[in-house]
Fold this sequence. Notes:
Layout: E1 6-9, E2 23-25, E3 94-101, E4 107-114, E5 120-126, E6 139-145, E7 151-157, E8 163-170, E9 176-182, E10 195-201, E11 207-213, E12 219-227, E13 230-237, E14 251-258, E15 263-269, E16 275-282, E17 288-294, E18 307-313, E19 319-325, E20 331-338, E21 344-350, E22 363-369, E23 375-381, E24 387-395, E25 398-405, E26 420-427, E27 432-438, E28 444-451, E29 457-463, E30 476-484
Antiparallel strand pairs: 1-27, 2-19, 3-30, 4-5, 5-6, 6-7, 8-9, 9-10, 10-11, 12-13, 13-14, 14-15, 16-17, 17-18, 18-19, 20-21, 21-22, 22-23, 24-25, 25-26, 26-27, 28-29, 29-30
Amino acid sequence: MAVAGAVLVAGACSQPTAEDPAVTTAAPDTTTTTDEQVEPEPATETATTTATPDTTTTAAPDATTTTEPAEPEPAEPEPAPEAPEPAMQELPERSGWSIQIGTEDADTTYGVSAAPGGDLVVAAATQGSLAGDNQGQRDVYLARYSPSGELRWSIQTGGPMNDSPLGVSVAPDGSIYVGGFTDGDFASANQGSADVWLARFDADGNELWRRQFGGPAWDRGFDVTAFDGGAYITGYTASTLDPATDLGGFDGFAARYDADGNQQWIRHIGSDATDWGQGSALAPDGGLYMTGYTEGALVGSHAGDKDLFAVRINVDGSLAWATQLGTAALDWTQGVGAGPDGGMLIAGSTEGALAADHAGERDMLVVSLDAGGKERWRWQAGTEGMDTAFEVRQTGEFIVVTGTTAGSLAGADAALGERDAVLVWLDLAGNLLAMEQFGTGAVDDATGVDVSADGSVVWSGYTYGSYQDAGAGGADLLFGRLELGS
């Protein structure tokens, strides 16, 4: 089965390189951040079809000049030729499959991870009985699929309260780390309001351990990033999880756990205002890239409303650098991926003109930083409606972004329903190659993405319609795998 949807191939899009690079500084010892997971809104049903576009390529012009030497006097030095602009990569054909499953209740996912051998692991929250009896409110659903889309195993676990998983990541040894937040006693006694939880499963879905932490206020795990020997969990907190780095109010946080479930460190990230911590990705040295948004000046100055921030955290929990950028309007980010040459990719949204003219209510945004936090480029695109980028990853010479649109992001008459799922393809310089818009006549969001060792793309989301099969009721899980041809 191929991913369905309308496709637009573009040779260029509004994605100028930012004139002013993001401010980078050595981050202070004490920082804070906060950021809230945006939960999907219902959608309506629609069927879709996918075409693979031919991408426009532009050959760089040869720029050479010569200077004739004067007879009596030495010739003036020849001016250096201008560096040619790199030609855009051609996006290859994509093929793959997608699956829709669900219960008569709400089933939603923000997390998908590529596993060794090309398998796909999806983590979801279900209010129904998807792989066992529902234990109360939202349970954790975890499933593993083969590269051809066959179910290897699925499990469901939870307590009487809400136990939502928001992040999942597979470690090099095949261990699966899942995390989120709970309103109950999911792994230990609840500390008050919502607590953070993190669990480790083996490759066959057997739970190895589960941890829960928090304070008397609201604490929420948002994303999980596994490494060889453990995992990081990021999110935001209104409690004091680490007195040494707490700045009060809402802060972002990052915590590191070893493979046995021991917390090695935890720290707050942000400013003295409200800060929300969101997505994360593994840095080249085994440290952590993390993003979020702030209503203060985490580093430099506050542009207005909410600004994006990005930080790099060392393996020992110290802050390597922090970057902040934004407009006078609302700018927020959610997803992070490792970028070219060990850098960082950020996916989010803006209600201002951060990289191009503002198209409408909210535009998609992708930012590329190098490993030192210096900005490389920004890309922005949108419709007259609400457009959001959720996650971003690099696969070879391309960047893939998942998101949602309430308009016709892939061109005229591309809209299929109330809200459509979107896959955006960029080259490594931030040029738009293609947009795929797909879904049903209802609400459809593409929220998660990851890349297998062979470069294949796994993605996840949810639909309120009938995309592959008749909708089970409420929101159904939607996920799939795409192989990129030559």
